[in-house]
Input
Amino acid sequence: MSRVLRQQQTRDAFKSGIDAMAAAVTPTLGPLTGVVALDGETRGGSPELLDDGGTIARRILQLEDRDADAGAMLLRETLWQQRKRYGDGAATTAALYQTVYDEGHRFIRAGGDAMLLRGHLEAGMRLMLATLERQARPLTEAAEIERLALSICGDAAIAATLADILDTLGPHAPVEAREGGRELRSEFFLGAFWESAVPSRMVFDGVAGGRLELRDTAWLISDFEVDDLDALVKLVMAVVKDGCDSLAIVAKSFSEQIIAAQGANRQRDDFTLVYIEPRGLVDEQEAALEDLALLTGGRALRNAAGHSFDALDAGCLGRSELAWLDRNRFGIIAGAGAESKVGRDIEALESRFGKSADERQRAILRTRIGRLRGGSAVVYAGGSSESEMRFQMARIERTLAALREALLEGSLPGGGAALLRCVPGLREASANSGDLHRRAACRILAEAAIAPCRQLLQNAGHAAPGAIIADILASANGTGYDLLASEFVKNETAGALDSAAAMLGAVRNGIGGAALALTVETLVHRLNPPLAIEPGGLPSSAGMGNIELK
Output
Protein backbone atom coordinates (compact mmCIF):
# COMPACT_ATOMS: atom_id res chain seq x y z
CA MET A 1 0.00 0.00 0.00
CA SER A 2 1.07 3.62 -0.56
CA ARG A 3 2.21 5.94 2.21
CA VAL A 4 1.07 9.58 2.21
CA LEU A 5 2.76 12.61 3.82
CA ARG A 6 0.93 15.92 3.98
CA GLN A 7 1.84 19.59 4.27
CA GLN A 8 4.36 20.22 7.04
CA GLN A 9 5.64 16.64 7.03
CA THR A 10 6.28 16.88 3.28
CA ARG A 11 8.14 20.19 3.51
CA ASP A 12 10.23 18.99 6.46
CA ALA A 13 11.13 15.84 4.50
CA PHE A 14 12.00 17.84 1.39
CA LYS A 15 14.18 20.19 3.43
CA SER A 16 16.11 17.30 4.92
CA GLY A 17 16.79 15.77 1.51
CA ILE A 18 17.67 19.09 -0.15
CA ASP A 19 20.10 19.90 2.66
CA ALA A 20 21.74 16.48 2.33
CA MET A 21 22.18 16.76 -1.46
CA ALA A 22 23.40 20.36 -1.25
CA ALA A 23 25.92 19.39 1.44
CA ALA A 24 27.49 16.92 -1.01
CA VAL A 25 27.67 19.46 -3.84
CA THR A 26 28.35 22.97 -2.50
CA PRO A 27 31.84 22.10 -1.14
CA THR A 28 32.93 21.87 -4.83
CA LEU A 29 32.09 25.55 -5.47
CA GLY A 30 35.07 27.67 -6.48
CA PRO A 31 38.70 27.10 -7.50
CA LEU A 32 39.94 26.23 -3.97
CA THR A 33 38.10 23.03 -3.08
CA GLY A 34 38.75 19.41 -2.28
CA VAL A 35 38.04 16.36 -4.39
CA VAL A 36 35.38 13.68 -3.84
CA ALA A 37 36.46 10.05 -4.28
CA LEU A 38 33.87 7.39 -5.15
CA ASP A 39 34.53 3.67 -4.88
CA GLY A 40 35.44 1.94 -8.13
CA GLU A 41 32.93 -0.28 -9.92
CA THR A 42 34.83 -3.35 -8.77
CA ARG A 43 36.36 -4.14 -5.40
CA GLY A 44 39.97 -3.03 -5.43
CA GLY A 45 39.42 -0.94 -8.55
CA SER A 46 40.63 2.61 -8.97
CA PRO A 47 38.25 5.14 -7.32
CA GLU A 48 36.58 7.89 -9.34
CA LEU A 49 37.82 11.38 -8.44
CA LEU A 50 35.27 14.21 -8.82
CA ASP A 51 35.14 17.95 -8.26
CA ASP A 52 32.06 18.53 -10.43
CA GLY A 53 28.87 19.17 -8.45
CA GLY A 54 26.54 18.01 -11.23
CA THR A 55 28.29 14.67 -11.64
CA ILE A 56 28.49 14.14 -7.88
CA ALA A 57 24.72 14.67 -7.63
CA ARG A 58 24.18 12.27 -10.51
CA ARG A 59 26.15 9.56 -8.71
CA ILE A 60 23.91 9.79 -5.60
CA LEU A 61 21.11 7.37 -6.44
CA GLN A 62 19.14 7.17 -3.21
CA LEU A 63 19.05 8.34 0.41
CA GLU A 64 18.28 5.82 3.12
CA ASP A 65 15.38 7.93 4.40
CA ARG A 66 12.68 7.67 1.71
CA ASP A 67 10.96 10.85 2.86
CA ALA A 68 14.17 12.89 2.56
CA ASP A 69 15.08 11.05 -0.65
CA ALA A 70 12.17 12.71 -2.48
CA GLY A 71 13.59 16.19 -1.84
CA ALA A 72 17.11 15.07 -2.66
CA MET A 73 16.02 13.63 -6.02
CA LEU A 74 14.21 16.86 -6.94
CA LEU A 75 17.44 18.79 -6.41
CA ARG A 76 19.48 16.04 -8.13
CA GLU A 77 17.43 16.42 -11.31
CA THR A 78 17.84 20.21 -11.28
CA LEU A 79 21.61 20.00 -10.79
CA TRP A 80 22.12 17.45 -13.54
CA GLN A 81 20.06 19.48 -16.03
CA GLN A 82 22.18 22.53 -15.19
CA ARG A 83 25.39 20.55 -15.69
CA LYS A 84 24.22 18.92 -18.92
CA ARG A 85 23.03 22.17 -20.49
CA TYR A 86 25.76 24.61 -19.42
CA GLY A 87 28.73 22.47 -18.32
CA ASP A 88 29.09 24.48 -15.11
CA GLY A 89 27.13 26.15 -12.33
CA ALA A 90 25.69 23.09 -10.54
CA ALA A 91 27.19 24.06 -7.17
CA THR A 92 25.90 27.64 -7.54
CA THR A 93 22.47 26.21 -8.42
CA ALA A 94 22.57 24.06 -5.27
CA ALA A 95 23.46 27.04 -3.05
CA LEU A 96 20.62 29.13 -4.50
CA TYR A 97 18.11 26.27 -4.33
CA GLN A 98 18.95 25.34 -0.74
CA THR A 99 18.81 28.94 0.53
CA VAL A 100 15.51 29.74 -1.18
CA TYR A 101 13.93 26.53 0.10
CA ASP A 102 15.25 26.95 3.66
CA GLU A 103 14.16 30.59 3.96
CA GLY A 104 10.86 29.94 2.19
CA HIS A 105 10.17 26.93 4.41
CA ARG A 106 10.70 29.12 7.49
CA PHE A 107 8.32 31.80 6.15
CA ILE A 108 5.59 29.26 5.31
CA ARG A 109 5.86 27.66 8.76
CA ALA A 110 5.26 31.12 10.22
CA GLY A 111 1.97 31.37 8.32
CA GLY A 112 2.93 32.49 4.81
CA ASP A 113 1.12 31.22 1.72
CA ALA A 114 3.27 29.04 -0.52
CA MET A 115 1.55 29.89 -3.80
CA LEU A 116 1.69 33.66 -3.19
CA LEU A 117 5.35 33.37 -2.16
CA ARG A 118 6.18 31.40 -5.32
CA GLY A 119 4.73 34.11 -7.55
CA HIS A 120 6.80 36.82 -5.88
CA LEU A 121 9.95 34.66 -5.90
CA GLU A 122 9.60 34.23 -9.65
CA ALA A 123 9.02 37.98 -10.10
CA GLY A 124 12.14 38.70 -8.02
CA MET A 125 14.07 36.12 -10.05
CA ARG A 126 13.27 38.08 -13.21
CA LEU A 127 14.63 41.21 -11.52
CA MET A 128 17.86 39.34 -10.75
CA LEU A 129 18.14 38.05 -14.31
CA ALA A 130 17.79 41.57 -15.69
CA THR A 131 20.52 42.81 -13.33
CA LEU A 132 22.83 39.98 -14.39
CA GLU A 133 22.17 40.51 -18.09
CA ARG A 134 23.20 44.17 -17.78
CA GLN A 135 26.55 43.05 -16.36
CA ALA A 136 27.33 40.53 -19.14
CA ARG A 137 30.32 41.33 -21.34
CA PRO A 138 31.67 39.50 -24.40
CA LEU A 139 34.92 37.56 -24.15
CA THR A 140 37.23 39.17 -26.69
CA GLU A 141 40.75 38.20 -25.64
CA ALA A 142 42.57 34.96 -24.91
CA ALA A 143 43.53 36.29 -21.46
CA GLU A 144 39.84 36.69 -20.55
CA ILE A 145 39.04 33.20 -21.78
CA GLU A 146 41.89 31.89 -19.65
CA ARG A 147 40.62 33.76 -16.57
CA LEU A 148 37.20 32.22 -17.02
CA ALA A 149 38.64 28.73 -17.57
CA LEU A 150 40.72 29.04 -14.42
CA SER A 151 37.67 30.02 -12.37
CA ILE A 152 35.87 26.91 -13.65
CA CYS A 153 38.55 24.26 -13.26
CA GLY A 154 41.15 25.78 -10.92
CA ASP A 155 43.95 24.27 -13.04
CA ALA A 156 46.23 26.82 -14.71
CA ALA A 157 47.60 24.38 -17.30
CA ILE A 158 44.14 23.27 -18.46
CA ALA A 159 42.92 26.88 -18.50
CA ALA A 160 45.82 28.05 -20.68
CA THR A 161 45.51 25.10 -23.07
CA LEU A 162 41.75 25.43 -23.64
CA ALA A 163 41.92 29.23 -23.91
CA ASP A 164 44.55 28.92 -26.65
CA ILE A 165 42.47 26.35 -28.56
CA LEU A 166 39.15 28.21 -28.43
CA ASP A 167 40.72 31.60 -29.09
CA THR A 168 42.28 30.12 -32.23
CA LEU A 169 39.46 27.91 -33.49
CA GLY A 170 36.29 29.51 -32.06
CA PRO A 171 33.52 28.28 -29.75
CA HIS A 172 32.20 25.55 -32.06
CA ALA A 173 35.57 23.95 -32.79
CA PRO A 174 35.78 20.14 -32.54
CA VAL A 175 37.93 19.48 -29.47
CA GLU A 176 38.43 15.98 -28.13
CA ALA A 177 39.84 14.95 -24.75
CA ARG A 178 41.90 11.76 -24.74
CA GLU A 179 44.07 9.91 -22.29
CA GLY A 180 47.71 10.85 -22.69
CA GLY A 181 50.91 10.40 -20.73
CA ARG A 182 52.14 11.99 -17.55
CA GLU A 183 51.84 15.58 -18.82
CA LEU A 184 48.98 17.60 -20.29
CA ARG A 185 49.48 18.38 -23.99
CA SER A 186 47.48 19.33 -27.07
CA GLU A 187 47.60 19.10 -30.86
CA PHE A 188 45.97 21.14 -33.64
CA PHE A 189 44.72 19.59 -36.89
CA LEU A 190 43.86 21.35 -40.15
CA GLY A 191 40.60 20.80 -42.01
CA ALA A 192 37.42 18.89 -41.17
CA PHE A 193 37.06 15.28 -40.07
CA TRP A 194 34.32 12.68 -39.62
CA GLU A 195 34.02 9.50 -37.59
CA SER A 196 33.91 6.51 -39.95
CA ALA A 197 34.57 2.83 -40.52
CA VAL A 198 36.26 1.06 -43.42
CA PRO A 199 34.77 -2.26 -44.59
CA SER A 200 38.24 -3.69 -45.26
CA ARG A 201 41.57 -2.87 -43.62
CA MET A 202 43.59 -4.02 -46.62
CA VAL A 203 43.91 -0.44 -47.79
CA PHE A 204 46.19 0.24 -44.80
CA ASP A 205 48.58 -2.67 -45.50
CA GLY A 206 52.11 -1.30 -45.61
CA VAL A 207 50.99 2.24 -44.71
CA ALA A 208 53.18 3.78 -42.00
CA GLY A 209 51.23 4.84 -38.92
CA GLY A 210 47.96 3.44 -40.28
CA ARG A 211 47.09 6.81 -41.88
CA LEU A 212 46.56 7.02 -45.63
CA GLU A 213 47.11 10.35 -47.40
CA LEU A 214 44.86 11.04 -50.38
CA ARG A 215 45.87 13.60 -53.02
CA ASP A 216 43.73 14.94 -55.85
CA THR A 217 40.73 12.84 -54.87
CA ALA A 218 37.27 12.46 -56.41
CA TRP A 219 34.47 11.92 -53.88
CA LEU A 220 31.26 9.93 -54.37
CA ILE A 221 29.03 10.96 -51.46
CA SER A 222 25.95 8.78 -50.97
CA ASP A 223 23.81 6.54 -48.80
CA PHE A 224 24.04 3.72 -51.38
CA GLU A 225 24.48 0.02 -50.73
CA VAL A 226 27.23 -0.48 -53.31
CA ASP A 227 27.07 -3.90 -55.00
CA ASP A 228 27.33 -3.27 -58.81
CA LEU A 229 30.83 -4.20 -60.00
CA ASP A 230 30.29 -3.00 -63.58
CA ALA A 231 29.17 0.41 -62.34
CA LEU A 232 32.25 0.59 -60.07
CA VAL A 233 34.62 -0.18 -62.96
CA LYS A 234 32.90 2.45 -65.11
CA LEU A 235 33.22 5.02 -62.32
CA VAL A 236 36.91 4.29 -61.70
CA MET A 237 37.69 4.61 -65.42
CA ALA A 238 35.90 7.97 -65.58
CA VAL A 239 37.78 9.28 -62.55
CA VAL A 240 41.15 8.14 -63.91
CA LYS A 241 40.37 9.74 -67.27
CA ASP A 242 39.57 12.97 -65.44
CA GLY A 243 43.12 12.96 -64.02
CA CYS A 244 42.39 12.15 -60.36
CA ASP A 245 44.90 10.17 -58.31
CA SER A 246 42.28 8.57 -56.06
CA LEU A 247 38.59 7.88 -55.56
CA ALA A 248 36.83 7.86 -52.19
CA ILE A 249 33.38 6.31 -52.08
CA VAL A 250 31.23 7.21 -49.09
CA ALA A 251 28.29 4.80 -48.83
CA LYS A 252 26.08 2.92 -46.39
CA SER A 253 27.60 -0.50 -47.18
CA PHE A 254 29.77 -2.42 -49.67
CA SER A 255 29.25 -5.97 -50.95
CA GLU A 256 31.95 -8.63 -50.73
CA GLN A 257 32.44 -8.46 -54.51
CA ILE A 258 33.04 -4.71 -54.35
CA ILE A 259 35.51 -5.15 -51.46
CA ALA A 260 37.38 -7.78 -53.48
CA ALA A 261 37.67 -5.28 -56.34
CA GLN A 262 39.35 -2.88 -53.94
CA GLY A 263 41.98 -5.55 -53.28
CA ALA A 264 42.60 -5.94 -57.01
CA ASN A 265 42.99 -2.18 -57.37
CA ARG A 266 45.81 -2.20 -54.79
CA GLN A 267 48.07 -3.67 -57.50
CA ARG A 268 48.11 -0.23 -59.13
CA ASP A 269 50.71 2.24 -57.93
CA ASP A 270 49.19 5.30 -59.61
CA PHE A 271 45.63 5.18 -58.25
CA THR A 272 44.02 4.62 -54.85
CA LEU A 273 40.47 3.41 -54.23
CA VAL A 274 39.02 3.73 -50.71
CA TYR A 275 35.63 2.87 -49.20
CA ILE A 276 34.19 4.79 -46.26
CA GLU A 277 31.10 4.11 -44.11
CA PRO A 278 29.99 7.10 -41.98
CA ARG A 279 29.23 6.43 -38.32
CA GLY A 280 26.51 7.75 -36.06
CA LEU A 281 22.74 7.80 -36.00
CA VAL A 282 20.69 8.62 -39.08
CA ASP A 283 20.59 12.39 -38.49
CA GLU A 284 24.33 12.46 -37.83
CA GLN A 285 25.05 10.54 -41.04
CA GLU A 286 22.76 12.88 -43.00
CA ALA A 287 24.64 15.87 -41.61
CA ALA A 288 27.97 14.25 -42.53
CA LEU A 289 26.89 13.77 -46.17
CA GLU A 290 25.64 17.35 -46.47
CA ASP A 291 28.84 18.84 -45.04
CA LEU A 292 31.11 16.60 -47.06
CA ALA A 293 29.30 17.58 -50.25
CA LEU A 294 29.58 21.26 -49.34
CA LEU A 295 33.32 21.13 -48.63
CA THR A 296 34.17 19.11 -51.76
CA GLY A 297 31.78 20.85 -54.14
CA GLY A 298 29.91 17.61 -54.86
CA ARG A 299 26.34 16.39 -54.32
CA ALA A 300 24.95 14.14 -51.61
CA LEU A 301 23.23 11.28 -53.48
CA ARG A 302 20.38 9.40 -51.84
CA ASN A 303 18.30 6.39 -52.77
CA ALA A 304 15.16 8.17 -51.57
CA ALA A 305 15.75 10.93 -54.15
CA GLY A 306 15.95 8.41 -56.99
CA HIS A 307 19.74 8.38 -57.33
CA SER A 308 21.48 5.08 -58.02
CA PHE A 309 25.03 3.81 -58.23
CA ASP A 310 24.62 2.42 -61.77
CA ALA A 311 23.42 5.72 -63.24
CA LEU A 312 25.91 8.28 -62.00
CA ASP A 313 26.67 11.65 -63.51
CA ALA A 314 30.36 12.51 -63.15
CA GLY A 315 29.35 16.08 -62.40
CA CYS A 316 27.97 15.02 -59.02
CA LEU A 317 31.40 14.02 -57.70
CA GLY A 318 33.25 16.24 -55.26
CA ARG A 319 36.97 16.98 -55.32
CA SER A 320 39.70 17.56 -52.79
CA GLU A 321 43.32 18.47 -53.19
CA LEU A 322 44.37 16.84 -49.90
CA ALA A 323 42.54 14.41 -47.62
CA TRP A 324 43.35 11.55 -45.25
CA LEU A 325 41.90 8.31 -43.90
CA ASP A 326 42.67 6.13 -40.90
CA ARG A 327 40.84 3.22 -39.29
CA ASN A 328 38.37 5.40 -37.37
CA ARG A 329 38.20 8.75 -39.17
CA PHE A 330 38.64 10.54 -42.45
CA GLY A 331 39.23 14.21 -43.14
CA ILE A 332 39.36 16.92 -45.80
CA ILE A 333 42.20 19.43 -45.58
CA ALA A 334 41.72 21.21 -48.92
CA GLY A 335 38.37 20.71 -50.62
CA ALA A 336 36.97 22.22 -53.83
CA GLY A 337 33.79 23.63 -52.27
CA ALA A 338 33.01 27.32 -52.86
CA GLU A 339 34.06 29.40 -49.83
CA SER A 340 31.13 31.79 -50.27
CA LYS A 341 28.61 28.93 -50.12
CA VAL A 342 30.34 27.41 -47.10
CA GLY A 343 30.18 30.79 -45.36
CA ARG A 344 26.45 31.16 -46.04
CA ASP A 345 25.76 27.67 -44.69
CA ILE A 346 27.77 28.40 -41.54
CA GLU A 347 25.70 31.55 -40.92
CA ALA A 348 22.47 29.58 -41.39
CA LEU A 349 23.64 26.85 -38.99
CA GLU A 350 24.70 29.41 -36.37
CA SER A 351 21.26 31.02 -36.58
CA ARG A 352 19.59 27.63 -36.04
CA PHE A 353 21.94 26.91 -33.15
CA GLY A 354 21.01 30.17 -31.41
CA LYS A 355 17.28 29.43 -31.70
CA SER A 356 17.37 25.75 -30.73
CA ALA A 357 16.68 24.55 -27.19
CA ASP A 358 17.04 20.83 -28.01
CA GLU A 359 20.33 19.53 -26.63
CA ARG A 360 20.84 16.83 -29.25
CA GLN A 361 20.10 19.20 -32.11
CA ARG A 362 22.47 21.80 -30.65
CA ALA A 363 25.22 19.18 -30.39
CA ILE A 364 24.81 18.19 -34.04
CA LEU A 365 24.70 21.83 -35.17
CA ARG A 366 27.82 22.65 -33.13
CA THR A 367 29.66 19.73 -34.74
CA ARG A 368 28.65 20.88 -38.20
CA ILE A 369 29.66 24.52 -37.61
CA GLY A 370 33.04 23.53 -36.24
CA ARG A 371 33.58 21.08 -39.08
CA LEU A 372 32.75 23.60 -41.81
CA ARG A 373 34.96 26.28 -40.24
CA GLY A 374 37.88 23.86 -40.41
CA GLY A 375 40.43 23.04 -37.76
CA SER A 376 40.21 20.82 -34.70
CA ALA A 377 42.24 19.94 -31.64
CA VAL A 378 42.92 17.09 -29.27
CA VAL A 379 43.79 17.63 -25.61
CA TYR A 380 45.67 14.76 -23.99
CA ALA A 381 45.03 14.47 -20.27
CA GLY A 382 48.01 13.71 -18.10
CA GLY A 383 48.33 11.83 -14.83
CA SER A 384 50.38 9.33 -12.91
CA SER A 385 47.43 6.94 -12.44
CA GLU A 386 44.22 5.93 -14.19
CA SER A 387 42.12 7.79 -11.61
CA GLU A 388 44.12 10.99 -12.00
CA MET A 389 43.91 10.82 -15.80
CA ARG A 390 40.14 10.27 -15.76
CA PHE A 391 39.80 13.14 -13.29
CA GLN A 392 41.72 15.49 -15.57
CA MET A 393 39.74 14.38 -18.62
CA ALA A 394 36.47 15.14 -16.81
CA ARG A 395 37.81 18.58 -15.85
CA ILE A 396 38.79 19.29 -19.45
CA GLU A 397 35.38 18.27 -20.83
CA ARG A 398 33.45 20.24 -18.19
CA THR A 399 35.56 23.37 -18.63
CA LEU A 400 35.33 23.12 -22.40
CA ALA A 401 31.51 22.91 -22.30
CA ALA A 402 31.27 25.97 -20.05
CA LEU A 403 33.74 27.98 -22.15
CA ARG A 404 31.76 27.31 -25.32
CA GLU A 405 28.62 28.76 -23.75
CA ALA A 406 30.54 31.75 -22.38
CA LEU A 407 32.06 32.58 -25.76
CA LEU A 408 28.55 32.68 -27.21
CA GLU A 409 26.74 34.40 -24.31
CA GLY A 410 29.48 36.43 -22.60
CA SER A 411 30.96 36.53 -19.10
CA LEU A 412 30.06 37.96 -15.70
CA PRO A 413 32.20 39.07 -12.73
CA GLY A 414 33.16 35.91 -10.87
CA GLY A 415 33.58 34.97 -7.24
CA GLY A 416 29.89 35.56 -6.59
CA ALA A 417 30.28 39.29 -7.33
CA ALA A 418 27.68 39.35 -10.11
CA LEU A 419 25.02 37.93 -7.78
CA LEU A 420 26.03 40.31 -4.98
CA ARG A 421 25.23 43.21 -7.30
CA CYS A 422 21.60 42.01 -7.26
CA VAL A 423 21.35 42.44 -3.48
CA PRO A 424 20.85 46.25 -3.25
CA GLY A 425 17.96 46.16 -5.72
CA LEU A 426 16.30 43.27 -3.89
CA ARG A 427 16.68 44.94 -0.51
CA GLU A 428 15.26 48.18 -1.89
CA ALA A 429 12.29 46.33 -3.42
CA SER A 430 11.64 44.62 -0.08
CA ALA A 431 11.78 47.88 1.87
CA ASN A 432 9.48 49.73 -0.54
CA SER A 433 6.79 47.05 -0.79
CA GLY A 434 3.64 47.00 1.30
CA ASP A 435 2.91 43.38 0.39
CA LEU A 436 4.03 40.89 3.04
CA HIS A 437 4.77 38.10 0.57
CA ARG A 438 6.68 40.38 -1.81
CA ARG A 439 8.82 41.70 1.05
CA ALA A 440 9.55 38.14 2.16
CA ALA A 441 10.38 36.99 -1.37
CA CYS A 442 12.85 39.84 -1.97
CA ARG A 443 14.48 39.23 1.42
CA ILE A 444 14.80 35.52 0.64
CA LEU A 445 16.33 36.23 -2.77
CA ALA A 446 18.81 38.70 -1.26
CA GLU A 447 19.98 35.95 1.11
CA ALA A 448 20.17 33.51 -1.81
CA ALA A 449 22.26 35.96 -3.86
CA ILE A 450 24.80 36.12 -1.03
CA ALA A 451 24.93 32.35 -0.46
CA PRO A 452 27.28 31.36 -3.36
CA CYS A 453 29.88 33.99 -2.39
CA ARG A 454 29.71 32.89 1.25
CA GLN A 455 30.18 29.26 0.21
CA LEU A 456 33.12 30.17 -2.05
CA LEU A 457 34.86 31.93 0.82
CA GLN A 458 34.17 29.08 3.25
CA ASN A 459 35.54 26.55 0.75
CA ALA A 460 38.68 28.68 0.40
CA GLY A 461 39.19 28.61 4.17
CA HIS A 462 38.23 32.19 5.08
CA ALA A 463 37.20 32.45 8.73
CA ALA A 464 35.03 35.56 8.33
CA PRO A 465 33.30 35.48 4.94
CA GLY A 466 30.61 37.89 6.18
CA ALA A 467 33.15 40.70 6.56
CA ILE A 468 34.44 40.27 3.00
CA ILE A 469 30.89 40.17 1.61
CA ALA A 470 30.02 43.36 3.54
CA ASP A 471 33.08 45.10 2.06
CA ILE A 472 32.11 44.06 -1.48
CA LEU A 473 28.53 45.26 -0.98
CA ALA A 474 29.77 48.58 0.42
CA SER A 475 32.17 49.12 -2.49
CA ALA A 476 31.37 50.61 -5.87
CA ASN A 477 30.23 48.29 -8.63
CA GLY A 478 33.15 46.43 -10.16
CA THR A 479 34.81 45.38 -6.92
CA GLY A 480 35.25 41.69 -6.21
CA TYR A 481 37.46 39.36 -4.23
CA ASP A 482 40.15 37.23 -5.87
CA LEU A 483 40.19 33.92 -3.97
CA LEU A 484 43.48 32.80 -5.50
CA ALA A 485 45.28 36.06 -4.67
CA SER A 486 43.31 36.72 -1.43
CA GLU A 487 42.77 40.38 -2.28
CA PHE A 488 40.09 42.79 -3.47
CA VAL A 489 40.23 43.51 -7.21
CA LYS A 490 38.37 45.25 -10.00
CA ASN A 491 36.51 42.42 -11.74
CA GLU A 492 36.67 44.14 -15.12
CA THR A 493 40.46 43.92 -15.22
CA ALA A 494 41.39 41.13 -12.80
CA GLY A 495 39.97 38.31 -10.73
CA ALA A 496 37.66 35.49 -11.67
CA LEU A 497 35.02 35.43 -14.38
CA ASP A 498 31.87 33.33 -14.69
CA SER A 499 30.00 32.16 -17.75
CA ALA A 500 26.94 34.40 -18.19
CA ALA A 501 24.94 31.53 -19.67
CA ALA A 502 25.78 29.21 -16.76
CA MET A 503 25.00 31.89 -14.13
CA LEU A 504 21.68 32.84 -15.71
CA GLY A 505 20.81 29.15 -15.94
CA ALA A 506 21.75 28.61 -12.29
CA VAL A 507 19.43 31.45 -11.22
CA ARG A 508 16.54 30.11 -13.29
CA ASN A 509 17.05 26.51 -12.20
CA GLY A 510 17.96 27.13 -8.56
CA ILE A 511 15.34 29.74 -7.71
CA GLY A 512 12.62 28.46 -10.03
CA GLY A 513 13.10 24.87 -8.85
CA ALA A 514 13.01 25.79 -5.17
CA ALA A 515 9.95 28.03 -5.64
CA LEU A 516 8.09 25.14 -7.22
CA ALA A 517 9.22 22.67 -4.53
CA LEU A 518 7.86 24.99 -1.82
CA THR A 519 4.35 24.52 -3.19
CA VAL A 520 4.41 20.72 -2.81
CA GLU A 521 2.11 19.80 0.10
CA THR A 522 1.61 16.08 -0.38
CA LEU A 523 4.11 13.28 -0.94
CA VAL A 524 2.88 9.82 -1.94
CA HIS A 525 5.31 6.91 -1.71
CA ARG A 526 4.71 4.06 -4.13
CA LEU A 527 5.24 0.55 -2.82
CA ASN A 528 8.77 -0.64 -3.70
CA PRO A 529 9.32 1.47 -6.85
CA PRO A 530 12.31 0.53 -9.03
CA LEU A 531 15.47 2.60 -8.61
CA ALA A 532 16.05 5.35 -11.19
CA ILE A 533 19.70 5.39 -12.24
CA GLU A 534 19.49 8.59 -14.29
CA PRO A 535 18.20 11.94 -12.95
CA GLY A 536 14.64 12.57 -14.06
CA GLY A 537 13.33 9.09 -13.29
CA LEU A 538 13.19 5.80 -15.12
CA PRO A 539 13.15 5.40 -18.89
CA SER A 540 9.75 6.04 -20.48
CA SER A 541 9.34 2.30 -21.07
CA ALA A 542 9.10 1.81 -17.31
CA GLY A 543 5.92 3.88 -17.18
CA MET A 544 6.82 5.79 -14.01
CA GLY A 545 9.39 8.22 -12.65
CA ASN A 546 10.85 8.92 -9.23
CA ILE A 547 8.61 11.81 -8.23
CA GLU A 548 5.49 13.36 -9.66
CA LEU A 549 4.45 16.93 -8.81
CA LYS A 550 0.68 17.38 -9.10
